[in-house]
Amino acid sequence: SAVISQKPSRDICQRGTSLTIQCQVDSQVTMMFWYRQQPGQSLTLIATANQGSEATYESGFVIDKFPISRPNLTFSTLTVSNMSPEDSSIYLCSAYPRGEVTGELFFGEGSRLTVL
Amino acid sequence: KQEVTQIPAALSVPEGENLVLNCSFTDSAIYNLQWFRQDPGKGLTSLLLIQSSQREQTSGRLNASLDKSSGRSTLYIAASQPGDSATYLCASNTGNQFYFGTGTSLTVIP
Predict the structure, then answer these.
(1) How far, in Å, CA of A115 to CA of B89, rounded?
(2) A11-56 residue pLDDT tens
(3) Cβ contact (<8 Å) for A43 and B100?
(4) Closest residue of B to A48, CA-based?
């Protein structure tokens, strides 16, 4: 299994500002993902955070808006840039244990952002 | 693209009842299916993982089944308790990505 810590757990932000969310895993993992969950909705994959290379973004998400870093096998950050009220969501970090392609997906506690 | 549907969207039961949550998916070419629990405003907690070669998995009062050919999974909760109140999500793993259902919001009334 994997224990995933995210911070901040919640924040209230002003329109036009940027916020960086940190994700720390207690073991080395091959794959890390960032999801967004808008109010009342299910999860939408933003991007796969690749260690040592640029993240792979899903359709509708771009690097300028959601820059991601992955400096090593246990840590990643997601920045939400130039925020607007539409960015108010829960942002979730998840990880896939190393070498287990069919393994269990684990999640952090989520970061709940409210943009005023 | 895989589509995952969960029925019902919301469910309210008295404490002690047994209940079934349903999950259906359109593409049967999956590696596995996973059930999660989500408390309001929080992250997801993994409940059960069923590999594509398995028919069911059990953990305590929870039992999940998988019928790949029909594209269905069920989560059975025995002797429900107020602490089981949460949203339950299923997700199918196609190898490239996890696809999530919209969840079933469960309320267990004391």
Answers:
(1) 26
(2) 999 999 999 999 999 998 888 999 999 988 889 999 999 888 899 9
(3) yes
(4) B97
Beta carbons of A34 and A66 less than 8 angstroms apart: yes
- The pLDDT tens digits of the residues spanning B61-84 come to 999 999 999 999 999 999 999 999
- Report the gap between the CA of A23 and the closest CA in chain B (Å): 13
Residues near B88 by Cβ (< 8 Å), separated by ≥ 6?
B6, B21, B35, B36, B37, B38, B47, B75, B103, B104, B106
Partner-chain contact B43 A6, CB within 8 Å? yes
Q: Is the CB of B81 inside 8 Å of chain A's CB atoms?
A: no
For B97, name the nearest residue in chain A, comparing CA atoms only: A45
Could B31 and A90 be called an inter-chain contact, meaning their C-beta atoms sit closer than 8 Å? Answer: no
Task: Provide the pLDDT confidence category of residue A96 given band limits of 50, 70 and 90.
Answer: confident
Question: Do strands B86-93 and B104-109 pair parallel, antiparallel, or not at all (unpaired)?
Answer: antiparallel
Q: Does the beta-carbon distance from A104 to B89 stay under 8 Å?
A: no
Confidence of residue A110 (pLDDT cuts 50, 70, 90): very high
Reported confidence tier of residue B1, pLDDT bands at 50, 70, 90: confident
Would you call A112 and B43 a contact, using CB atoms and an 8 Å cutoff? no
Give dist(CA A90, CA B3) in Å, integer: 22
Residue B22 DSSP SS3: strand
